[in-house]
Amino acid sequence: MRAMILAAGRGERMMPLTKNTPKPLIKVGNQTLIEYSINVLKKAGIIDIVINIAYLGEQIKTYLGDGTKFGINISYSDESQNTLETAGGIIKALPLLGNEPFIVINSDVICDYDLSQLALPINSLAHLVLINNPAHNSKGDFSIANNQQITLLDCNNFTFSGIGIYHPDLFKSHLDTQQKLALYPLLKEAMDNNQLTGEHYQGIWHDVGTPERLEIVNSENN
């Protein structure tokens, strides 16, 4: 299985720390955020990884190289000329990801979910890992029905963790686009067709999206 790490964002909420450093290279403890993502994937046996880059992306390429020093294989999808948001970035990277389901994770998420257990159910185009609503997203994103189907019919009890597995067919109706495209409309379409599933995870999860949250995570790791 292949995976993609989303690392093209400007990290504006993390300013001023990201003025001269891309957010994926911000350190938590003694390792960078993107190293944490790489190690989680490698632990799950996933060594073929695509990383999309844009803002200060050359720093990421210089730091990681082709992945040899981490025991993995890295391919880069360069969005420096036109950042494409999540779905647009995934679509641009599809030729590198292949024709089988693949995992996508946010580079600013720290989570101890075992990615080797992440699988796409039959007839599902996307399967999301959901967590309890954090303070910064108290209204939540989704609910889950008994059959793992994700819905919006109930109160939104859970937040999307930034970890999911996707079938390339989720994006097939948008393959011609080279414009910015958010992920939610594609997930909503899949949900309306009963092709969006999810699971509730209650382990360690942090969205390291602001200096304040970074400080909290670092204090917990000391």
Q: What features would you describe in this structure?
A:
The protein has a single domain, classed as Alpha-Beta Complex (Spore Coat Polysaccharide Biosynthesis Protein SpsA, Chain A). It is an alpha/beta fold and 222 residues long. Helices cover 23% and strands 26% of the residues.
Which fold name is given in CATH as the topology? Spore Coat Polysaccharide Biosynthesis Protein SpsA, Chain A
Give the N-terminus to C-terminus distance in angstroms: 34 Å
Low-confidence stretches: none
Architecture, CATH level 2? Alpha-Beta Complex
Strand content: 25-35%
Written as H for each helix and E for each strand, in order along the chain, the element string is EEEHEHEHEEEEEEHEEH
Computed over alpha carbons, the radius of gyration is 17 Å
Determine the structural class based on helices, strands and strand pairing. Answer: alpha/beta
Produce the secondary structure layout.
Elements lengths: L1 E5 L20 E2 L2 E2 H11 L4 E6 L3 H8 L8 E6 L6 H13 L4 E5 L2 E3 L14 E7 L10 E2 L5 E2 L6 E9 L17 H9 L3 E5 L4 E3 L3 H11 L1
Parallel strand pairs: 1-4, 1-6, 4-5, 8-12
Antiparallel strand pairs: 2-3, 6-11, 7-13, 8-11, 9-10
